[in-house]
Amino acid sequence: KKLLATRADVNAKDEKGLTALMHAASGGHVEILQLLLEKGADVKLTDASGWTALMLAAYQGNAANGSALIAKGVDVNAKTSKKTTALICAAGKGHKEIVEMLIAKGADVNATDADGKSALGYATEKGHTAIVELFKGIKTETPRAKRYTPLEINQLIRSKSLPQKDLVQLLGEPDYRGKYKGQELWQYQSLTEADGKIWHQNF
Asked: Tens of pLDDT along 151-160?
């Protein structure tokens, strides 16, 4: 309160890009968070990795802070640099109350992070059965491999920048002919070398 009384920048960031609001959200300091919001703290700011105050509150299980931030218009579907959302954070940590709140406020239940995992996927993986039950009756989609154009497939194969397992994960499993779903122009063949497997175009 004394710092704010001296007109200190309420949105100032530390070396990690965290604001006072983010620290309050993460630490569960409800009164401080409310005071910062009253003084104009920006709920949309992110740290160096793209985390918002809401994501930090969701990760730590601070439902009261999460509710206050949502009331101020924070984007419930914002994503970090690794495409993590507040819902994914809460579901992965087993915070049922926040998961319920986020879903009620329009959080995308089908959003996936950079690893292709959704909130339901993390809840299932971590054994958070109460949260898994919440998703029953909610229309969710199983993450699918991205559809690439023939040119994009060719570029991925030629670049040799991805291991075989990652290439298959991105493009989907090939059929019995060795062709990718929906892609009739290209097929792959794996060859064993000292460093493992490589990929090349096969006409």
From this structure: 665 665 565 5
- DSSP state, 137? T
**Burial class of residue 169, CB neighbours in 10 A (0-12, 13-18, 19+):** middle
d(CA 133, CA 31): 33
- The token duo for 165 is 């397992």
Residue linked to tokens 């690794």 = 82
Reduced to 3 states (helix: H, G, I; strand: E, B; else coil), residue 114 is coil
Closest to 54 measured CA to CA, from 122, 17, 101, 16: 101
Determine the Cα–Cα distance for residues 108 and 106; give it in Å rounded to an integer.
Answer: 6
Q: What is the pLDDT of residue 136?
A: 83
Query: Residue 130: exposed, middle, or buried by beta-carbon count in 10 A (0-12, 13-18, 19+)?
Result: exposed
Cβ atoms of 42 and 53 within 8 Å: the answer is no
Q: For position 107, what pLDDT does the model report?
A: 94
Length in residues, the chain: 203
Question: Is 111 within 8 Å of 87 (Cβ atoms)?
Answer: yes
Q: Give phi and psi for 189, each to the nearest 5.
A: -140, 130
